[in-house]
Every structure is written in structure tokens, then in C-alpha cells.
Amino acid sequence: MKTDRQTDGRTDGRTDGRTDGRTDRRTDGRTDGRTDGQTDRQTDRQTDRQTDRQTDRQTDRQTDRQAGRQAGRQTDRQTDRQDRQTDRLSNENIVIFARPIQTDRTDST
């Protein structure tokens, strides 16, 4: 005979014979018999290790790729600029040395 939110012969919303909202006879939010907010130690360690390793690998790869691409682009650009400057200088030198030597016109007799 159940009345007023009684479940399985219990009163006051209690479940499984527990009081004060406790579950599995634990208090203070403890889980699996651990205290003070400790949670499954294995999952914490595994998660930390896995995410750290994955993060390290990913960031290393990404950093290497990005740095490689950027370095490649920069060196290519620098090389191109230097080549252009070299071409300009060599062209100017060619032009300078290709000028005809002017002789003094007053010497013609």
C-alpha cells in the first residue's frame, strides 16, 4: 500500500533504503569508494597520457608541416628575390661593360 510518492515501501523519495540523496551508500559525492572528488584513477591517467601524447604528436606534426611550408615559402621567396637582384646587377654590369668606348673626336686628323 503506497501513498504520497512512496516507492517500494519507502517514503520521502528515498531509493534503495538510502537517505539524503545518497547513492550506493556513498556520501559527499564520492564514487567507487573514493573520497573528495576522486574519480576512476585509471581513466584519468589514461586520458591524460593519451591526450598528451596525441596532442604532442599532432602539434609536432602540424608545427613541422607548417614550419616546413613557411620556411620553404620564405626561402623560395628570398631566393627568388636574390636571383632577381643578381639578374639586375648582372644586366647592369653587362650594360655598363657593353658601352662603346668613346674616343676624343678632336684627335681625328
Describe the model.
The protein has 109 residues and is mostly helical. The chain has a domain at 66-96. Helices cover 52% and strands 0% of the residues. The chain has one helix and no strands. It has one helix at 41-97. The longest helix is centred in the middle third of the chain and has 57 residues, at 41-97. It is rod-shaped and about 135 Å long. The chain starts with 40 loop residues before the first helix and ends in a 12-residue tail after the last helix. The relative contact order is 0.04.
**What percent of the residues sit in helical stretches (DSSP H or I)?**
40-55%
SSE string, helices as H and strands as E: H
Largest sheet: none
**Uncertain stretches of 5 or more adjacent residues:** none
Q: Please tally the helical runs, counting DSSP H or I stretches of 4 or more residues.
A: 1
Gyration radius (Cα, Å) is 42 Å
| Distance between the amino and carboxyl termini | 144 Å
The assigned structural class equals mainly alpha
Number of strands: 0
Short note summarizing the structure:
The chain is mostly helical. Helices cover 52% and strands 0% of the residues.
Any chance you could write out the topology, listing elements then pairs?
Elements: H1 41-97
Q: Key terms for this structure?
A:
single chain; 109 residues; mainly alpha; 1 helix; rod-shaped
